[in-house]
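FAQ: What does the model actually see?

It sees only this:
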Amino acid sequence: MIRRGLIVALACLVPAAAGAQNVAEVQVAPPTVTIRVGERSGLLATAFDRIGNVIPTVRIIWSSNNVQRREVDNSGTITGIANGVAIIEAAGGCAARQAAVQVTGGATAPPQRHRGRPRHLRRQRPRPDPFVGQPPGSGPAAALRLEPGVVYLLASENTRVSPRALREDGSPAAPVLVTWTSLRPDVASVDQSGNVVALSPGQGTIQATATGGLTATAPVVVQQAEFSVREGTSLMLSPGELDTVHVIVATQSNRTVNPLVLQWASSDQSVARISLAGVVTAVGPGKAILTVSGLLQSKSIEVSVHQVVTKLSVRPAPRGKRYRFRSPAPLSSRRRL
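And it is asked to produce this:
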């Protein structure tokens, strides 16, 4: 991982190919993945220039910080090896983006390779679940539906669409095998797990085809629009208090952007911290600037954390009288009316 990072850093110091020089941002979809030991899944990396255009000719270099837990090949296909978390990085030109991969369902150490043993005695790796994301049901499917029915995205944003197999009465049918296709691959792409990535502004369509000829489609609307912080430009918190910052797109019915596709930062960790999910934790008195960036945009919000209140007083106090404030008694000790 360090060696790959050094190579990329050196490449940024010397003249590079025109495509690599123009890369301003790399997006990886999905940003988080959970797979089982032996299961395979695909990541998709997309490179963009400074004005948000897709650069299709950029070569993406994939790497993992823990090859003992998962592998990644040159196409972004990951394979779970042992329980744990690994960080996958996709680098293009001088930009890079990471995805977190959680591997479950196996031992904490890589499986031992048994050389020379008969094939029927070797441990077989479990195959990926082709019905992942589909609700349980029974009986043959009479219709197929996609959720959500309409997908709204910003350029370079991603989301996941799930298939729903239904019986004639509308109840869940038995899960079905689905093949995904993008009818406008220049607008949006879709992988075989239903992960949709917005590539350029426009309107496209994704289609799911199930065994037996059942099909379902969902329009994908990609707009070049600004996002905003729903909470406004400032927050007031007490030490130890928590709050959540939400990023929305006003022109798309105020829908909320997935916080995991954004990057969060605080100008002063001693005043306020912010998690990958946009959860703000007030640490100590002072002011800090929280910054949320991604999707070729950036917004800021000011957080003010006041000091802990230790004493209350009334001014001016009436002559001959003193007011003393204390915390209320517990409910159990109060007199019931």
